[in-house]
Design brief:
CATH architecture of one domain: Beta Barrel
CATH topology of one domain: Lipocalin
Strand content: 35-45%
Structural class: alpha+beta
Order of helices and strands: HEEEEEEEEE
CATH class of one domain: Mainly Beta
Largest sheet: 9 strands, antiparallel
Shape: elongated
Number of strands: 9
Oligomer: single chain
Length: 151
C-alpha cells in the first residue's frame, strides 16, 4: 500500500474574455456616482434670502470638484473668499467664507432642507467672534427669468 498526497486540480476560470470590459465598467460606475452627486448638489443652485435681515446668497454654479461660484449681498456685494459644496449624510451642504471689511473670516455652514426649501445652518461672525443659527429661504423665480444653466 502506497500512501501519497492526493492533488486536486481545479480548472481556473478563463477571464481573458472579460478583462477588456472591466476597466470601462469600473469607470462608468464611478462616473455614475459623480453624476448622481452633481445632480444632488445642483439643488443648491439659485438665489437664497435670509429673512432676518435681507442678506442674499446666490449660488451660480457648482463644479464636479465641489467648488461653488457664489455671490453674497448685504445689500451690496461682499467678496466671497471660498465656497464649496459637498454631500453629508446624503444631503447637500454649502460652505461659504467671506472677505472684505467687517467680514473677513466670517463663514456660513449650511445644509439643504429640500422638504422645507431652506438652507439651514450656522453663521460665524468673525468680528464679534459669535456663531448664530440661521436659515435662508429659496427666492422664488421671477416671471420671465430663465433657470440657471447649472441646474
Amino acid at each position: 500500500m502506497v500512501r501519497g498526497v492526493m492533488t486536486l486540480r481545479i480548472p481556473r476560470a478563463n477571464t481573458s474574455s472579460i478583462r477588456p470590459f472591466l476597466l470601462p465598467a469600473l469607470l462608468l460606475a464611478m462616473c455614475s456616482f459623480v453624476n448622481a452627486d452633481s445632480r444632488v448638489l445642483a439643488d443648491l443652485v439659485g438665489a437664497w434670502i435670509r429673512p432676518d435681515g435681507g442678506y442674499k446668497l446666490v449660488v451660480k454654479s457648482i463644479g464636479e470638484d465641489g467648488k461653488a461660484v457664489v455671490e453674497y449681498f448685504n445689500p451690496n456685494p461682499i467678496p466671497v473668499a471660498a465656497a464649496t459644496a459637498s454631500l453629508k449624510d446624503g444631503g447637500p451642504e454649502l460652505f461659504v467664507k467671506l472677505e472684505g471689511v467687517n467680514y473677513t473670516g466670517s463663514t456660513y455652514q449650511l445644509a439643504l432642507r429640500a422638504d422645507k426649501n431652506k438652507l439651514e445652518g450656522k453663521y460665524f461672525q468673525s468680528t464679534q467672534k459669535q456663531t448664530y443659527e440661521i436659515f435662508f429661504e429659496r427666492q422664488p423665480e421671477k416671471k420671465g427669468e430663465t433657470e440657471p444653466a447649472a441646474r
